[in-house]
Amino acid sequence: MKEFGFKIEKKIPGRLGRAGVITTPHGEIKTPAFVTVGTKATVKALTPEMVNSLGAQVVLANTYHLYLQPGDDLVAKAGGLHKFMNWQGPMMTDSGGFQVFSLGAAFGEGGVSKFAKEGVQKIEELAKEDDVTVKLAKIDEDGVTFKSHIDGSLHRFTPERSMQIQHNLGADIIFAFDECTSPSADYDYQKQAMERTHRWAKRSLDEHKKIKAGEQALFGIVQGGRHQDLREESARVIGGMDFDGFGIGGSFDKEDMGTAVGWVSAILPENKPRHLLGIGEPEDILEGIKNGADTFDCVTPTRMARNGTLMVKGGRLNILNAQYREDFTPIEEGCGCYTCQHYTRAYLAHLFRAKEMLAGTLASVHNLYFLIHLTEQIRQDILEGRM
RNA sequence: GUGCCUAUGGUGUAGUGGUAGCACAGUUCCCUGUGGAGGAAUUAGCUCGAGUUCAAAUCUCGAUAGGCACC
To answer: Is residue A76 classed exposed, middle or buried when 0-12, 13-18 and 19+ CB atoms within 10 A define those classes?
Structure first.
């Protein structure tokens, strides 16, 4: 079985970005690469064969969801995630840390996302003092207590627990347990949370080494919100630990997410891969790559696909708009995806209106192909000196 | 032919005297480590006419159109 590794093939002159290859026990990931999200050990609406044939190299599943259902022990009994879900390529698992945010500070706040926006400045108090009876998650120094969104039962994650669960799941790349803070949290909270995430990183690493099963690589996660000094401090602390690679998490300002990624990339060890967590708008991917991120995962392409929004070169296309009902052209002229090769906008519009399951499937194929190939194109541009 | 019943947005319905509500469809928007094959906004209506009343989708009469029953 191959060891985990990362090799830089070519750098963007004068920038932090690069093209490279990550080696995992289940194959290579040519970077920059978009990581397809398969939260519950399935890329929604697609079979692994489809995921593979549209060009995906790697799939990310989620610790929180699989721990709750069907349980990490069961996945271990099944022989691990790869076998269980029939995905033979590289896999990642999220640490469950993001749910600390989505079940905690962001719970019930429809307008709150990782990105700072106008008019959502009211929840920092709740983030500090949230009660598991109100929100679904409560954070303390040792870990997080949360309620299952499935049946309301009470559970607890700690860095050690997250490592144990992720080892049971058996992905090639796993992440340290962290806290993704709300963009509306103030500086003091960001700092406290970041420092706690650093302590959790150390504990994650210790537990990971103690378990020492298989060939799993562990990535530490840099936090620090939108503040340059915190981001840089986090990069120094996390970058100084013995991780196999790094995740860049948390919240950003929409306008200069790239800048924030740059602060961090400049400090993290150059010879280890950097994963930008949860980022997936085409422009953000480009900015992330320029600023040193190697891999990206995001629910956007698959979620938007299921809701009728298709990604095209000019932006987005809402296939439910009336103008597409009798449009017998492909989603995008010249697109090489299976959907564009065989179906028209009118057909997709019909499937969505009729609420047919194939709608989500064909749209997911297109959006994933779009984003994966966009990222691949940037890789080629780097390798061939066009960037 | 006679009697009875029914008539509310595109569709299906709620509303028995005082702002016509809901669902679906329609239209548009949103989604960044999936609590999401989800969510939000919005367009559009009392069959027609006369009467009673301060006030009618609502009560009365007539017309029209359906349905049922009987001859």
So the answer is: middle
Give the residue from A215, A210, A212, A205 showing the smallest Cα distance to A238.
A205
3 state SS of A340: helix
Q: What is the pLDDT of residue A254?
A: 84
Q: Is the pLDDT of residue A122 over 60?
A: no
The ipTM estimated for the assembled molecules is 0.89
The protein footprint on chain B, as nucleotides within 7 A of a CB, is 25-39
| Pair A136, A156: CB distance under 8 Å | no
Of the residues A178, A284, A294, A297, only one is catalytic, namely A297
Query: Which of A88-92, A95-99, A199-203, A345-349 has the least mean pLDDT?
Result: A95-99
Does the A5-93+162-298 domain belong in CATH 3.50.50.60? no
The verdict on whether A206 is a catalytic residue reads: no
State yes or no: is A178 an active-site residue: no
Instruction: Please count the other Cβ atoms lying within 10 Å of the Cβ belonging to residue A8.
Output: 14
pLDDT of the residue at A111: 58
Question: pLDDT per residue over A302-324, tens digit each?
Answer: 999 999 999 999 999 999 999 99
CA–C1' span, A296 to B13, in Å? 50
Q: What global pTM score does this model have?
A: 0.93
CA distances from A70 to A63, A84, A138, A227 (A): 11, 11, 23, 38
User: What value does the mean pLDDT take over residues A58-84?
Assistant: 97
Computed over every residue of chain A, the mean pLDDT equals 92
* CATH 3.20.20.105 residue spans of chain A: 5-93+162-298
Residue A126 to residue A161: CA distance in whole angstroms: 25
Contact of A340 with A328, CB cutoff 8 Å: no
Residue A36 CA and nucleotide B30 C1' are separated, in Å, by: 22
Q: Nearest nt (C1') to A323 (CA)? A: B27
Residue nearest to nucleotide B38 (CA to C1'): A307
| Rounded CA–C1' distance between A293 and B69, in angstroms | 81
